[in-house]
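Journal club prep, notes for RB
We'll compare a predicted complex against what the paper describes. Inputs for the 4'-deoxy-4'-aminopyridoxal-5'-phosphate case:
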Amino acid sequence: MTEKSRLSIQDPNLFDYEVKSYPQGYVRLDRNENIVIPNELVRKLVESAFEDLDIRVYPDENIVDYISQWENVSPSQIVVGNGADDILYKLSLAIYRDGGKAILNVPTYSMYRWFLERVSAEISEVLLKPDFSLDFESIHKNYDRNVKAIYICSPNNPTGNPFNKFSIKRLLDEFDSIIILDETYSFFSRERAVELLREGYENLVIIRSFSKIGFAGIRFGYALASENLASTIHRFQPPYSVNSMTLAIVKEVIKNFDLIENVIKEVVNERDRMYRRLKRFRELIVYPSEANFLLIRVLEGSFRGLLDFLLSRGIVVRDVSNMPLLKNCFRLSIGTMETNDNVLESIKAFYEEFGGVYNG
Ligand code: PMP
């Protein structure tokens, strides 16, 4: 093998995640960020977080004590990382470094596949039911001794529905693999599974993130798990992985979480208002959501035509129509009231202009 070919070892079959950029002025409603939180509030929190910061030394690791008190789980059950993605990646590495199979319940967050392919895990995809609930029968059919983990996202990206405690408990009881429960969107939902950890389930890992509550830029996420699993994940995280600026901001956010709660309430109210308003369009189906986005199916008129029309007005949404069960569907993040009204007005204008006959 020549040096060149050794350096260019690449698997052309690896799934890639496309990060798109748009010129300034476009409203990004395709990434589920939180633009509802006033930037002044974020800046204020960052400023006070940095007051006592000493960048000359390595970050201290007492962040787990803060999260432990806040989440009411023991510090030994917490692992922190650079966003939920970092935790998910390390977790895949820890579980699959010596092979094995994973079950994904699709449609779901496409990055699970990205991580699993890179650690050479075998992937088995199980379709959700048409109402987006878990298909236990099908999970059982695909389950065998090689399955080391089942991935669940609740509320699920991009369908928006949560899986309640009973279905998570059922998974934990019926399967002896690890259940990876991605709760990145749980701040917007009534469903949380942390109680199950307190009940002593050994095979549960819950993943959380600060990205959807207004802090996507700091890249912070963490896992809550049984002590056993947490220490395993920890062994795959190099020391001092999360930088001290991020950690300082996280502490400040936790200290002031009542302010963040108000923002979350505002997003939830706007989401529910958008749901009711979008339901009035007979050309669309909008699905109930407990996340900070809505899944919308275009029934009449051109799907592509609508997305292009929104783009021509500077509104970017996420096309998820190539995912199983999601023909002609797009995902819309919830923005400020003004932004959301602009989306409603633009959809209305599209149908007024082109009606159901416009075919792109
Ligand atoms: N899980 C899900 C379901 C997500 O949608 C995302 C972000 N889009 C992540 C994890 C990654 O979150 P983070 O920004 O904390 O890495």
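Talking point for the session: The pocket of 4'-deoxy-4'-aminopyridoxal-5'-phosphate is lined by residues 32, 83-85, 109, 153, 157, 182, 184, 209, 211, 216, 221 (CB under 6 Å).
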